[in-house]
Amino acid sequence: MSGTSISIVEVGPRDGFQPINEFIPTAQKAAFIDRLYEAGIRRMEATAFVSPRAVPQMADAPQLLEHCATKPGLDVQVLVPSRKQAERALAADARHLAFVLSVSPAHNQSNVLRSPRESVEDFRAIFAMLPPGARVRLNLATAFDCPFDGPVEPGETLELVEALASISSDAEFCLCDTTGRVTPDRVGDLFRGAQQRFPEIGRWAFHGHDTYGLGVANVLAAFQTGVGVIDSSFGGLGGCPFAPGATGNVATEDLVWTFAKMGVATGVDLERLLGAADMAATLPGACVGGRVRDALGAHSRRSENA
Amino acid sequence: MSGTSISIVEVGPRDGFQPINEFIPTAQKAAFIDRLYEAGIRRMEATAFVSPRAVPQMADAPQLLEHCATKPGLDVQVLVPSRKQAERALAADARHLAFVLSVSPAHNQSNVLRSPRESVEDFRAIFAMLPPGARVRLNLATAFDCPFDGPVEPGETLELVEALASISSDAEFCLCDTTGRVTPDRVGDLFRGAQQRFPEIGRWAFHGHDTYGLGVANVLAAFQTGVGVIDSSFGGLGGCPFAPGATGNVATEDLVWTFAKMGVATGVDLERLLGAADMAATLPGACVGGRVRDALGAHSRRSENA
Predict the structure, then answer these.
(1) Per-residue burial over B236-272, b = 16 or more CB atoms within 10 Å of its CB, e = otherwise
(2) Contact (Cβ atoms closer than 8 angstroms) between residue B49 and residue B14
């Protein structure tokens, strides 16, 4: 395994809360963000700038961004699906955008209502409008597998990476397993292939789901290729409303536990994180996952040397 | 990844049923064995010869062994914890014994009421009494981690392998993660170290638990080193009664699904296996696990290309 530290991006406040129908009061969301920060989380996808009509849960994005700005050292990224929403986010003082587009045309159409090529042009416009000091990460959904069309050819993903890298290779490129159906061998192969073909891209990330129990295995496969940034969600919250059966991101606590056992630093305190995850599990409509929370709850958390 | 096929040892009828308090009628156990066989399972830990007073659930071992003998091509192994029980098993026509002993003295004492050295002497006696055509596999419990003493040093495990290999290197050596707390890096390291140090041992196997969500990841780490035999339990049934919190073997269906995606043949039909697992989930007192059963149940099993 490579590296002695890993950067975890806590995506629960966005990817985890988004599919929950009942509106979580802004103060409660802010309290979750506080607990995650107190647990040592220093990078977070805190919210999304999307149509409040389409996703009412994310309607309080500006307020949450303002809340996050009070936390020293917290790198706050916000999801944006379009040029218009990127403008909204930047106007609200967002300085780290996560622009999402899908490799699969069918998924991109469902998710952001345009073709991948149109999304690439959106990225070109967004990149051009970035103020000094602002950054963008690219979330390539269905980089491995599409809920509608099944397995995605590596060549298709690499072609999209190429189009985006021709606009900016400074962005962080996050390859996302949207369905949770990819296996570690393919995760490793695609990252190795991508790193070899695009040496100009310096930052890679992986985002996976644990739907079929491969969440941690896939993260480790990415880590083994040198990927240093991993998305995960506390309590295993999450799932994509447009990917049927994708019932949860890989759980942050599963990663923190695993990496600790491997001697890889995450900077996150497991006990405090578990406290936040336990709290999340009580949210009405929350779809929780992961294994470590149950395993440590089964006997005594306090006696566990994580 | 190495190899284009893998041999799965279905241990549910032993490891999965054993911790269930309420006696499962022998005919029902036989029906499970039938369904697993019909799903393509060709190697099974079907029962255990242990004290019927200590483990009443396994009291029907001779009858189940007789039932299994009617199935062409089924390799039936039975767990034995001592010389005395090995004698009982052989008298009942068992021809494939799985002798269990622990690397950790504390666990061996709890599990089989003797020291590891005494267990090694038991193996010497068992090996000497094997009739022609009979085989033995060695289950080295706590090969990585002990529920009582925590992490086990690789040197301790290798020392026990050495003592056993000096009696017979023809046995299959199964390194068991009893607690589910080992990580894939350590699984890979130990198997590589063992294979290098004991080239005379031709058959290695891995037995893991999914308690912390690392079941499949650990199996793949073993597979990557060339291990060709993997234990698993349908429905993720199982757990060790003497390992608190070890709440389930890696689920056979999770492995069958994963290996199919990787193009590695298991010989097992996923649909039929899921049928057996669904049936197991209805057993009173059953502790089920795994992810694939839920994931495929969540939408339509029939539409899934495993």
Answers:
(1) bbbbbebbebbbbbbbbbbbbbbbbbbebebebebeb
(2) no
Q: Is the pLDDT of residue B49 over 90?
A: yes
How far is residue A231's CA from residue A236's CA, in Å, rounded to a whole number? 11
Q: What is the separation of C-alpha B276 from the centre of its chain, rounded to a whole number of angstroms? A: 18
Torsion of the alpha carbons at B209, B210, B214 and B217, rounded to the nearest 10: 70
Mean pLDDT of A183-200: 98
Could B220 and A215 be called an inter-chain contact, meaning their C-beta atoms sit closer than 8 Å?
no
- The model's pTM is 0.90
Q: How far apart are CA A31 and CA A50, in angstroms?
A: 22
Segment A31-48, tens digit of pLDDT: 999 999 999 999 999 999
Mutate to test the interface with A, among B148, B190, B258, B274 (most CBs of A within 10 A): B258
Residue pair A152/A143 in contact by the 8 Å Cβ criterion: yes
Residue of B nearest to A244 (CA): B299
> How far apart are alpha carbons B221 and B47 in whole angstroms?
28
- The average pLDDT across B169-189 equals 96
Stretch B232-240: mean pLDDT: 84
Residue A166 has φ and ψ, to the nearest 5°, of -70, -20
Are A150 and A107 contacting, i.e. CB atoms less than 8 angstroms apart? Answer: no
Above 80 in pLDDT, residue A5?
A: yes
Across the A:B interface, residue pairs with CB atoms under 8 Å apart total: 92
In the three-class reduction of DSSP (H, G, I as helix; E, B as strand; rest coil), residue A221 is classed as: helix
Determine whether domain A7-297 maps to CATH 3.20.20.70: yes
Of A211, A198, A121, nearest to A157 (Cα)? Answer: A198
B177-190 in b/e form (b: 16+ CB < 10 A) is: bbbbbbbbbbbbbb
The Cα–Cα gap between B291 and A289 comes to 10
Residues of chain A that touch chain B, judged by Cβ-Cβ distance less than 8 Å:
1, 150, 180-186, 210-217, 220, 244-245, 247, 251, 254, 257-258, 261-262, 290-292, 294-296, 298-299, 305
Q: Domain residue spans in chain A? A: 7-297
CATH architecture for residues B7-298? Alpha-Beta Barrel (3.20)
| Residues from B in contact with A at Cβ < 8 Å | 1, 150, 180-186, 210-217, 220, 244-245, 247, 251, 254, 257-258, 261-262, 290-292, 294-296, 298-299, 305
Q: For B219, name the nearest residue in chain A, comparing CA atoms only.
A: A217
ipTM: 0.85
